[in-house]
Amino acid sequence: MPKKAPILSFCNACSRETNHDIVHEKVRLVSETVDEGFDIEWSKTNRMIECRGCESISLQVTWWHSEIDLSDDIDLYPPRISRKPPSWLNDINRDLAGILRETYSALHADSRRLAMMGARTTVDMYMNLTVGDVGGFAKKLAKLVSDGHLSKFDKIILDAALEAGHAASHRGHTPSSQEINQVMDIVENMIQKLALTKSAEALSKGTPSRKIASEMLPES
Questions:
Q1: Spatial contact of 145 and 173, defined as CB atoms under 8 Å apart
Q2: Which of 15, 61, 67, 20 is nearest to 40 (CA)?
Q3: 91 and 73 within one domain
Q4: Total structural domains within the chain
Q5: What is the span of the domain harbouring residue 164?
Q6: Structural domain contains residue 96
Q7: Alpha carbon distance 149, 127 (integer Å)
Q8: Which stretches make up the DUF4145 domain (predicted)?
């Protein structure tokens, strides 16, 4: 049997579309007779595919219908990762990291409303850890700016976008991909400072003082 031509598919490990070999394929074809003897057909194709770059394996599911264009209906397992969790996630507060992980899981499932709610909860928890419970959400944001944890420009974007998160939870608003990515950019940048502070403290402890370093030098 001749080998099938490779197909393009998104690879989570490579973080981009790559050529994949079809390892195995199973097609299920269904035919139905509807009103007045009219026949329709549809199929579901399951493909086990392997990335030609990193050799990662995934399952691709595609659909076909005789009356409807389903060419864009493609499911991937594991789901396509829309935004990778940062490498410093394990270096921050455990509860804060847990909320962030759940937010990324919502993003991977394209559950943008849940992701925006998660981002808002993450910011609220970060503010309590950083400036304390100084009042409502607006007061905490203002305190972040006054204490130098957040720029005024980022506050404007974050405030507007998190209002979209409030709308998502109370008024059924679905934020756009651009909105959620803007929010996550700011949230990640803000929270990364916690990880950097921890790294700086560890580096400082491991670095000998100038006096100790000079004493260690050989006498001339």
A1: no
A2: 67
A3: no
A4: 2
A5: 87-200
A6: yes
A7: 10
A8: 102-188
DSSP track, 99-120: HHHHHHHHHHTT-HHHHHHHHH
Cα angle 26, 31, 32 (rounded to 5 degrees) comes to 145
Encoding tokens for residue 163?
């209002």
**Domain annotation covers residue 40:** yes
132 φψ region: left (φ > 0), alpha (ψ -120 to 50), beta (else): left
Pair (99, 193) in one structural domain: yes
The answer to whether residues 58 and 105 belong to one domain is no
Tokens 């000998």 found at: 208
3-state secondary structure of 189: helix
CA distances, 178 to each of 16, 22, 139, 141, 185 (Å): 19, 33, 26, 22, 10
Cβ-count burial 117-127 (b if 16+ within 10 Å, e if not): bbbbbbbbbbb
If phi > 0 it is left, if psi is from -120 to 50 it is alpha, else beta; for residue 90 that is alpha
pLDDT tens digits, the chain, 220 residues: what are they?
A: 567 889 999 898 888 899 999 999 999 998 888 777 788 888 999 999 999 999 999 999 998 888 888 777 788 888 777 788 888 998 898 999 999 999 999 988 888 888 988 998 898 898 888 888 888 888 888 888 998 888 888 888 777 767 766 776 777 777 887 888 888 888 888 888 877 766 555 555 656 666 555 565 566 5
Enter the pTM of the model.
0.63
Q: Is 211 exposed, middle or buried (0-12, 13-18, 19+ CB in 10 A)?
A: exposed
From the number of C-beta atoms within 10 Å of its C-beta (0-12, 13-18, 19+), residue 59 rates as middle
